[in-house]
Design brief:
- It is built from two helices and eight strands; from the N terminus they run ββββαββββα.
- By secondary structure, it is of the alpha+beta class.
- A hairpin with a 5-residue loop joins strand 7 (98-105) and strand 8 (111-118).
- Helix 1 (58-72) runs antiparallel to helix 2.
- This is DUF5959 family protein.
- It holds the Pfam family DUF5959.
- InterPro entries: DUF5959.
Length: 143
């Protein structure tokens, strides 16, 4: 039975949203390869809409945990920068509870998009809960 999709990352408000949605787990063909999560980046604004398929490895989830910790401490973050996968940058707006979310795809579409979204303190509890839910729903071994 397939599991329902889970939004690992969900930043939304004021008509804009950036979501990283996990849709399932893919078994690798070779026994030496780790399983991988299948997902997509979803961007929806009044100006631009799009989706981009992605694969997420256990190391990516651990790095998202570290990125969340840094973001919660008030630092801008980069997630998956330098990989052959879409990158995610979140820059905090010092004047209010907003952030600039940039998704950069250097390998397939060669497109970069930046969206402004709210980032209230309550968002962090939800973000950690989403990460835990992904680990519980699709346990993965080390790659």
């Amino acid at each position: 039975m397939a599991e329902d999709p889970i939004d690992l990352i969900r930043l939304e408000g004021a008509g804009n949203s950036v979501i990283v949605r996990i849709t399932g787990k893919e078994k690798r063909k070779r026994p030496t390869e780790a399983d991988v999560l299948v997902g997509e980046f979803v961007v929806d604004t009044p100006f631009v809409r799009g989706t981009l398929k992605t694969w997420i490895f256990p190391k990516d989830l651990r790095q998202w945990q570290q990125a969340l910790d840094s973001l919660d401490a008030g630092q801008d973050i980069a997630w998956r920068e330098g990989k052959r996968a879409p990158w995610l940058f979140i820059e905090l707006d010092e004047d209010d509870d907003r952030c600039q979310v940039t998704i950069k795809d250097c390998s397939m579409s060669l497109t970069t998009v930046t969206v402004t979204a709210p980032l209230a303190d309550a968002w962090f509890d939800d973000a950690y809960r989403r990460l835990d839910l992904v680990w519980e729903t699709w346990p993965m071994t080390e790659d």
